[in-house]
Every structure is written in structure tokens, then in C-alpha cells.
Amino acid sequence: MASGQNYVSVRDLTFSRGDRLIYDGLSVDFPKGKVTAIMGPSGTGKTTMLRLIGGQLQPDSGSIVVDGHEVTRLKRKELFQLRKDKMGMLFQTGALFTDLSVFDNVAFPLRVHTKLPESVIRDLVLMKLEAVGLRGARDLNPAELSGGMARRVALARSIAMDPELIMYDEPFTGLDPISMGMIVKLIRGLNKALGLTSLLVSHDVEESCGIADYLCLVSGGKVIGFGTPAELINEGSDEVRQFLKGEPDGPVPFHYHASDYRQDILSGGR
Amino acid sequence: MLNRLIQFGKQGTSAIESFGRATLLLWHSVMWGGPGSAGFRDLIKQLYSVGVRSLSIIAVAGFFVGMVLGLQGYTTLVDFGSESALGTLVSLTLLRELGPVVTALLFAGRAGSALTAEIGLMKATEQLSAMEMMGVDPLKRVITPRLWAGIMAMPILALIFSTVGIWGGAYVAVELLGIDDGAYWGNMQASVEFYEDVIKGVIKSVVFGIVVTWIAVYQGYDSIPTSEGIGKATTQTVVISSLAVLGLDFVLTAVMFGGV
């Protein structure tokens, strides 16, 4: 893959939390204009990856380039500028501002970043809300929304400034099938309509395979598989296939590392 | 023994680190942004929630403190036949000491803890993160208006406290104890000086306003984003700011009134 086609490039990324090494020399490229799902077992730091790309965490070493900008070396002001111009992020909880109505939540980034007259802001907000099907909910408070609706409002808010890169943190978790279907449709639809580069973090294999152009499997601090869903299912390593097929035992053992079972039982705790 | 020493050292460095982070927070939010840098609407909203909504507790507390001062002062002064000086005693005590200090303590409990809990919850529900990812600096958007609101509200509340307290003292002195009201107000007017007493009291409360609000917003911003963490941060706000107020009060009194 030529670098011109990649929107985000991660090189030799090392990151640790306390004594725990989360990424150990990880390198990966996320192609422009595509939906890439970052997958992996719980606790492999998938969300951490999004926070590193967004510059909310600093890696121990390595480089993260977003659209030609080295995120790890930006000054505070430049980082905020980059986020404002290029990035959108959908949080797992939605992270709506609880003291503002649905309308004001979506209007928030526009009001802070632009000097547009209120009538234009109103039109823009209604367009974004229409895109997620919630134009009628504009006067509700976040507390009155269901989980799925809250996530759709948050999605409208994260595309308010027309980002080029959008990151979804566990977008399918805790949704009923209908809301899940809506979110899947929106992610796909927005990617196509706006030409966004989308990164999504999930461990929901079926949904992710359904909408992602590429899958990026992370385990043990490294990328263990990158490719289209079909490629990985057919040609991936044993560990990749175990994860995608959801088999309980395989290269990743069912049992957490322990001493010999027989000895353990017979020792009587001595 | 060595372990204990290591532990002690760790606590020391983490305290210094935390003070450094708090200073950076103050620097980024106050030095770089005036009161209206996040829009005056936000400032007004915060002034309302930390200032106006603390009014009732401040006024009621002030009235009772004033009445108690009146009673206690009277029982002592009457032995020397100088109960006409009661107005002076009540007003100087309130303006110089009790007004700023008790207001700051009440403010820490009423508004400081609310600030910490609010900011901590915003952090726990990822609202601050979401703001960052929208390219909006939460320090300027969330912290700055709250800090300024606290700094501006505190001296006003302290003055209200003292005023109501002086009325409370007057009520006890004139209505209940039968001191001549001309003596109460006249002696007060003769002995209270605008700069020496009123302004120095205001200076104290401005300092307390900075310290209490700073501690409150820092504790919220730096809290561990869990229910336990926010609970702990809220307690810390009240404990640390109360101690800081009492400690600083001694220092300020020594510098401004003590002739040290």
C-alpha cells in the first residue's frame, strides 16, 4: 500500500500502562476512505489505539501520522486544531453534554468553532439530525433518550464539523438489534456519502465483518492479521481464525496459565 | 524501615507532582483566559450556580453568627461597663475574620463540593474527552468559567455575610439586650475604617476564592473517573480547602494586621 492511500499510519508503537505493556512495536496503516475495524480480545487496548490516534494519550515511543501530521509531536494548540479540522469520535456512552438539549449538543462544536449566524447553525444542525433520523427529537434532553438514540445524536454531533476521519469506540455494544441495525447502516452510509475514513473498535465479529472493508486484528501488543474479512477467514493464521470463528479453545487456550491440574488438586493447598 | 522511607518519598513526590498539575491547570485556565473567554453566558450561568445559589446558606449563617457574637460580646463587655462598644466588636470581628473565613468554609462545602462532583462526573461520562476530540479545550470551556465565577462570587458573598451578621448583632444588641442603637451604630462607624478593615477583609476573601475554587476544580478534573473516585475527590475538596483557608487566614492576618 502506498503511503498516499493511507490516512493514518502507525509505526513501531510502544505503549504501556503502569507495568503492563499494551503495544509492543505495533505498525499498521489505515487506508483512506475505507472502513477498518480494529478487533481483538478484551483488554488488548483497542480503545487505547483510538485515544493514541486522537492524541489523548502519548505513546512511549513510535510514530502516529494522521493525514501527514505527526500526532505525537504536535503542540497542544496544533493538536486541538487537527482534531477540530479532521477528526470526529463517537464514544461508547455517547458522551452527550447532559446540561444541553439534543439540538444544542449538535450545535455545540459549530457554535464554538465557527461564527456562523444562528439561522445557518439551525439549518446545519437539522441536516445532521435528519441524517441520523432524529430531527424530531431536537428538543429532548439526553436523559430522555434511549441508548441507541443517544449514540445516534452523538454521531450527529461528531460529524457536525465534517471530519475526514471518524473513530467509533465500540459502536455496537449494548444495543438492541434494531438500534444496532441503524448504527450499522449509518456507519456504512456516512462513509460512502461523506468519503470518510472510518476506524471502528469492536469485538462483534459478525457486525464488523458486515461493514468493514478491512479488519485489523490486534493481540498481545501486535497486529496478528490485517486484510479483508474474507482473506482473514480463509487465509489468516490459526489465532486469527479462532477469534473470527469464536472457538473457545485453540492457539489462545481456554485455560488461563496455571500449574498442573492434578498436582494442584492433590497438593491440598500446601 | 527502608520501605517506610521509600513510601514516604513516594508520597512526597506524588504530592509535588499533583501540585504541579494543579498549577498547570490554573495557568492554562486563568492566566490564558479572561472571565469571558468562554463566552459571558457561561460565566453568568456559573456565577448563578456557585454564587446566587449559595446566598441563602450564607445569609442565614451570617445572621446567626452575628447574633451569637452579639450575645457573647455583651456578656464579656458588660462586666467592664463597655457594652456600647458591642457594635465595634461585632463589625470588626466579622469584617476582618469571620466574614471571609466562615464564608469560605461554607462555600467549600456548598459550591466547592458541587463543582468537584460535576466536573468529576463529566470526566467519568467521557464528556471532557468528547470535548477534547471536538477540538474544544475543556480547560477553557469548563474550568475557566467555573474558576472565575468562584473568584468573583467569594468576596461578594463574604461582604453579604458580614452585612447580615452586623444586622444580626444589632438585632440582639438593640432589641433583646436593650443597648442604645445610636451607641451600637455610632461606635461602629467611628472605629471601622474602609481600607484597614473592609478592604483587607475583601483581599482575604479574594485569596480564599482563588484557593477554594482552584482546589475544587482541580480535584474534579484530576479525579479517578469512578463513583468511588469522585466521592473521594469531593471529600478531598472540602477537607483540603478548609485546611488551606484556615492556614492561609493565619498567614494573611499576620501579614496584614499582625505587624509581624
Which structural traits does this protein have?
heterodimer, A: 270 residues, alpha/beta, Rossmann fold, six-stranded mixed sheet, four-stranded antiparallel sheet, 38% helix, globular, B: 260 residues, mainly alpha, 9 helices, 84% helix
Tell me what the structure shows.
The complex is a heterodimer of chains A (270) and B (260). Chain A has 270 residues and is α/β, with parallel strands linked by helices. Chain A contains ten helices and ten strands. In chain A, the strands form two sheets. Chain A has a six-stranded mixed beta sheet, with helices on both faces. A four-stranded antiparallel beta sheet of chain A has the order 2-1-4-5, with no helix packed on it. In chain A, a hairpin with a 2-residue loop joins strand 9 and strand 10 (222-227). The longest helix of chain A has 18 residues, at 177-194. Chain B is mainly α and 260 residues long. Chain B has one domain. Chain A binds chain B through residues 54, 56, 76, 80-85, 87-89, 91-93, 95-98, 108-109, 112-113, 154, 157-158, 161, and chain B through 125-127, 129-130, 132-137, 141.
